[in-house]
Every structure is written in structure tokens, then in C-alpha cells.
Design brief:
15% strand; binds NADP nicotinamide-adenine-dinucleotide phosphate; 7 strands; 7-stranded parallel beta sheet; single chain; alpha/beta
Length: 249
Amino acid sequence: MVLVDKVAIVTGASRGIGRAVAVRLAEDGAAVVINFSSSEQAARETLEAVIAAGGRGILCRADVGKPDDCEEMVRSALDNFGRIDILVNNAGVTRDNIVARMKQQEWQEVIDTNLTGAFNCVKAVMRTLLKQKSGGRIINISSVVGLAGGSGQANYAAAKAGLIGLTKSLARELAGRQITVNAIAPGFIDTEMTAVLPENLKEAMLAQIPLGHVGKPQDIAELAAFLAGGGSSYITGQVISVDGGLIMA
Ligand code: NAP
């Protein structure tokens, strides 16, 4: 129970990777704020899984793209648990299209949620982390697409690459306070986000994965739990891929 007495905010925790991360952190003893923007019923199922794992949690509806929502989420975390130690910026959306056809709105929605959303959450928790003077962990869920680009995903790739720049800059700014900031770059993970991809595209992606199978949300959650814990205290500013060997730098 390495995270006993720690409090984590996990954005986009109503399903997929966010749910797996929330439950995994709860298994390690953290109290979790389960954020979602619209899928309340799914978020409740995450809370049930957290409780079944012996953990504590609350639901928090907030659109991470809205600074006021993020401030409110932090207030709610503090009202319920009194402190914040870990922020996992996981909320994300896709609006895939080739640039030639991409609408301004498709670009903006992805940047607003996947990149500005992380900035908004960091801004909202920053004062608390600094005031507590007890270090902290910020974990940003980027993507291999942020490292390598992706045809039809310029908006998503730009947001995820931006998240890596945010990660490294914040790591430098906060290192003196023992707050570590790292990014996870998942490859092809089996969630609702990837379920909608055309079968031929899924097969083509699968063929490129050296380990020969897609990943599970749990694969990301395991690394998130490590980065959230004490064993990772000398790791900051890093981007760690969890992708079955897809990208080897
Ligand atoms: P998912 O199943 O589609 O879940 C996305 C989550 O984000 C949901 O909980 C959703 O909640 C939440 N969300 C979306 N917009 C939000 C907003 N404005 N404010 C707050 N929450 C919001 O996706 P996933 O596959 O688990 O992906 C999770 C993260 O991993 C994303 O950042 C994604 O880009 C990244 N990732 C995924 C893969 C993959 O292969 N699956 C690969 C690389 C990176 P609501 O339904 O309530 O909006």
C-alpha cells in the first residue's frame, strides 16, 4: 500500500485507461478523484471498482478544457480529502481527419481537451502542491502518435507532442520542489477510443507491433502506479512508451 494517505486526481477516469489507472492507484492505497465530463454512469462503475479494490474515491464532473471546472475539481478534492499528491492528465479525445479536410473545430476540440486540458489541471493543482511542500507527481498520458506523428491525426499528434513539451518544461520548473513530471506514451491500447477504428487499420497497426498483440489499459496503469509511487522519485522529465515495442528510439 505504497500510496496510503496520498490523494490522486485522474482525469477522464470514466472508462478505458483512466479507469484502469484510478483503480490501480486505489489498490495501492490512494484516495482517487474520478473525473469525467459526460459519462456519469460509466464513472460510477469506476467508483464501484475503486471501492471493490478496498479504496476510497469521489466522482467529479469537469470539462478539463474549462479552467473554472478544473479549479472546482481541485476544491472538491480538497474538501473531501484535504490534500492532493498525484495528478494524472489522461482525458483525451480524437477527431481524426486528414489536414486537407480537417475543420477548425476538429483541430480546436482536440487541442482544448488533450493539451490545454492538462495545462488547466496543472494550473489548478499547482498552488496546493507547492503549499503542501511534500513533493508530488504529475503523470501526463501522451501517445506514440505524439512521438512519431500519425496520418489523419495531425490535431491529436500536435496535442500529444505538445504534452511532451509541457511535461519536460514542468519537470524543470518543479524539480526543485521534488515534484516529478513524466509522460507515458501508450501505443495501441484496447479501449473505446480504438474500438471505432476501421478493421483494416487495426490489422495494419497490429502487424507493426513486435510483441504481436495490442495493449490493455492495465499495461498503462501499472506504469502510472510506479510513476506515482516512491520508487520513481529520481525519474523526471521522461517520456516512457508502453507500446509492445512499436517505437524504439
Ligand atoms: P476513452 O476510452 O475514449 O476514454 C476517454 C476518457 O476521457 C473518458 O473517460 C472521457 O469521459 C474523458 N474525457 C473526454 N473529454 C473530456 C473532457 N473534456 N474533460 C474530462 N474528461 C474527458 O480513451 P482511452 O483510450 O482510455 O484514452 C485515455 C488517454 O490515453 C487519452 O488521452 C488518449 O489520447 C490516450 N491514449 C490512448 C491510446 C489507445 O490506444 N487507446 C493510445 C495512446 C494514448 P467522458 O465520456 O465523460 O467525456
